[in-house]
Amino acid sequence: MQGYILGTTRVREEDLLVRILTQTHLHTLYRFYGARHSVVHLGHKIDFSIEHDMREIGKLREPLHLAFVWEKDTQRRYFWQQYLNLLNAHLRDISHLDSFYFEHLEEGAKRLEIENPKRAMLNLYAKLLRFEGRGNTLQTCLICEQPLQNEIVLGRGLVSGHKSCMQGAVFNQAHIALWLSLQGEFLEEVEVDNLWNLLMQGI
Known about the structure:
Order of helices and strands: EEEEEHHHEEEHH
Radius of gyration: 19 Å
Number of strands: 8
Shape: elongated
Oligomer: single chain
Structural class: alpha+beta
Strand order of the largest sheet: 3-2-1-4-5
Strand content: 15-25%
Largest sheet: 5 strands, antiparallel
């Protein structure tokens, strides 16, 4: 089977617990290390098998790295790993998944071939918000509940408000609405940077 490595946790000396997202599951598997074992890293897409024994946690066997050309680019790999790390935290208590999440990462890997990496990950995030029903209508202020104007402030989780009601980076309301409608090309560079900083607080 194939999957994406969302996270690794070291146990004992060299062994790892590895979180792998597949079409329908988020597996936590035990990985023994040795001289003949291949290295597994956050963000890698791998082909692998699971060995089950009497223990509760299965063993990761025969992982084969299915590399993308863009992984040679340090910047692209960095933004990819940051997004997958956030997704791992977001899905921390889940083991069974909709196929959306695997296809979501498949799309992200393709986007990184041609798009600016930061914009590519933000566009993925907008798609995730839409799928999970967490999009913001951007109509009213979270604090005073009055209609929003052209300039808005966004907080973690994309809560929105007036500049006079909330502290934070200021965004153009129309640009954010277009981004949430999966038209991220309208975002200004400063908006991309500020949205990324918000995303880093958590999906």
